[in-house]
Automatic annotation (TrEMBL), chain B:
Natural source organism: Saccoglossus kowalevskii (Acorn worm)
Region (Disordered): 1-47
Keywords in alphabetical order: Cytoplasm, Cytoskeleton
Gene: LOC100378816
Pfam families assigned to the protein according to its UniProt record, in alphabetical order: LRR_6
Name of this chain's protein: T-complex-associated testis-expressed protein 1-like
Amino acid sequence: MSTHEEEDDTGPSVDSTDPEVRIAARRLRIIKRTELAHRETMGEDPNAKKKEDKEEQSKSRKQIEESRQRLTKLKTDGTELVTNVRVAGDSREALRRTEEEENLRQRTEKLEAEAKAGVERFEEITKKWESAHNRDVPQELQDLLMQQQSLCDAMIDDKNKLITDFQLVARCAHNLKIKLGKQEKQYREENQNLADDYKRITEQFKELQKKCNMTLLFSCSSFLENVGPITSEASAKKSVSAHQVLQEVMSSTKSSIQGEADESELGEGDAEIEDDEAKKLSMKTIKQVLELLCDESGFLVESKLNKLLQPLESDERSLMKLDAIFAALGIETEEDIHKLATYFLQFKQVQTKSADKAGEVEDELALQEGTLKPESRGEGTLVKTTGTVTEGLDQKPPTKEVEGDIDEREADAEVAKVTGEEEEVASVASSLKSIADSLIHPNDVLKALTDFVQDHHYPSKDKGKYQTFKIISGVERDDSEDEAYWKKYASVLTSKDEKVWSALLTGFDKYSEVLNNRSKLISETDALRQQNAELRMLLHQYINSKVNNELEIPPTRVLNLEFNG
Amino acid sequence: MTEPPLTDSQASEEKKDDADEKGSVKSSGSHKDKRIPSPALSTKDDAAADARNMRRIIAEDPDWSLATVPLLSELCVSHIVAEFENHPKLDELLPKYKTKVLEKISTEIPLKVVSHLVSDEGYWKRRCKARWEICDVSKYDASWKRMFFERHLENIIEHFVPETTQPNEIEELMPLAAPYIQKLEIKQLLPPVKEEQMRPLDDMSDTGSESGDNLPSIDHFEFSLVLDRLPHLQEFHVTYGVRDCGMNFEWNLFQFTNRDCLLLSKCVKKCSTLKVFKLHKSKVDDDKVRVLVSHILDHPSLEELDLGHNMIGDHGARAIGKLLNNHSKLVKLNLCNNKIRANGAGAIGHALTKNTTLKFLNLRLNRLGDDGGQAIGRALLKNSTLEEINMGSNDVTEPTAAVLSQVVVQNSTLKIINLSCNRLGPDGGKQLQEGMEENSTVIEMDLRLTESGQESEYCINQILKKNQERERELRLGDDMKQG
């Protein structure tokens, strides 16, 4: 190719006969021209461009330089920052070494001084030994010996002192070691303790869980007790009258049962008395009751609370205790407290009642008197009302004993009226005693409370509990007494009663049938009567109408004829 | 399908080994064509063959797969991989099969088999990564194989318990590993386990530091086992002590015995390729350093010696001075954290005046004092090779600074001076500043915690910056010339 081009360059290529050569030559020419033009521009421009380049380069260089310096600075700063740590450590170590050196120097100085002094003393002592050889008098020799000994002792003491001094210093490091050991031991113990605590707490938790299960079982059994009292009562009484059972079933609270029973047995007057009594339980009685409650039902208070209450004064303590007890019993209002108080009084009634079948009425009356008495005595203002009550009682005296009692009471009331306030103090004292007497025995508090809780627990709650307990404790439930319990209800109705009742039923059924027939007939008769009256009216109209006169044979005449005929 | 060019011997070996492929390989020696295995031989092939005849069954055959019959070459490769431990074949294979085999062979294959056979970095990388979590190959000249063997040997030595561990393992390993090891970094050496060491702790407090001396022979690993057989060893670091001993600390865990020292010194002397030798934190005292130095005098290749964090005093320093006095080719010497005082410094200084090789000298954390500092300083007035000196934390003060200010005026080779943690004081700082004003070579001067005064420090820093720029320009100029 190169030779070809050369030919083109040198030879008259454009005029060549070969068209291809011509074309090639032309192309070359064009290239050359453009190259020339390019060179021209290059020849002019480069100067201007170089200037710009220089400017740009200087700018970029500046920038590069700045960045480089910045980077160097960052690098050195960073290194310095990091090595600062090392330098600080070195510095501390150097300082420590200097101190150590100083200490060492001091120690050596001390030792050297000591050694020097020791040598001097030793020389002194040896000199004396030499002189000792010259002595002949034993006494003098003895003295000298003693002297020598004391000198030796002093020297030894000095050395010992120095030794102890150094040991003390050494002990400091030693102590540190011991301290470290102790601390380690302590931490290990702490760790052990914590581990033990953890174990204990886990165990406690497990126990608590167990207890919780137990409590569930217990509450389930307490439900059974709910049924229980009836059973026990029944077993005590052997047979319950149908009347009573019916009432028990029908009434929701025992107090109402009692009230009804009293009503039926004692009449309206007595019922009044009881209502009054419930309302008028004196503050003192209440207080007594509360004290009793506070003393006897400590089990309702959590042991933790008891611990907390220990430092408090007795008043405050009992207050807090009562609060806890009330919370446990679900007592919220004053009324509840009054209700509770009645239990503490009434409970005795129930007890006596169940204990003594025959003298039910009398006993109850006596009991009520018991409760009434202190009131009438204790509060002068009450005397009047009691008076009316006694009047009520007078009107309907069920038994002689009651009458007698009431008479007595009346007399008392009158005395109180007469003596007035002077007697009051004494009577208050005696009343307190009598109240105390009338309150239930502390041992029975639990029973009273159980009764109270049973009666005042909301039935809906009981139901819910019943259901849950049934599910939980179906297996564990003690059903030994169930049979007896339910059997009792089987025998509630005697055969005689049953006969009477069934006869009554059939009789009433027939009666109702008859009555139904009668009512039907009555309505039928009424309808017929009305029809008759209407017909009569119609007939009357016909007879009295004017058409009759116009007719040849008036129907009225026909009627008359018929009637006559 | 291309058949792998298996050799006769290989084929016959396979014949012995594998019953399954027996049929296919039996006549491989003479006829390559017959090596294609009959599909009916393997279970998979059976399924495929059946499938062709009984189409309807295909869908129901749970073992049937779309994968085609593996190539015989692949089968062979997998077989070679599986049997590599017993019958290693590598160099006979074509490159592409070789890479396949290298990719697949286990990292658990005994070193006996692979160490010389396999040079592929990929394999050694796999093996390193399988064994260690952190692998910084840049420290090993980017050679994974070197890394593996060095770390492997280090690991064995570090866990070697004298008189308990059998040296067999090392004996066996040495011929395999030796050619690839250039550097050994032994971070700990265990002492022999002895019953009598288990004394009650209470004794410790009384006996204290002497306890180690009571036991005559608690010598450590003998390096002659290893160092004598490493032809390419260039760098050797060792510490006679136990790492991570925690609360089991006892002084005699850190005992560099005389015998240890003697044996080590002999090994180092023999190791004529060694360039870097570091012996730190090993309680090297004067006597031991003298033994060591006496052995490494006129060492043919040693360029860097590091005896940092030991207990070298003046006598040891004197020995080192002798070493520096034209009895070595040392370029770098590190004596930081020792107990060298004025006398030792004097000896080293004297050596420096005659030395023409040493460029880096570290005397940090010694006890030179002003006498020692001045001695070194005066030596630097005459020396013209040393580029970097560290005299940090040496209890030197103003007089040394005065000498050094002369040094920076006269000396033109010194580039880095560290004087940190020395109480030079404002006067010392000023003197240094005056000296520096006539200097143009020093590019770093550490004056931290020297109390040399802010003004002096600032001025010196300005000069240093200037010098750095000049140095850089010079370097660039050199580069340009070379370019």
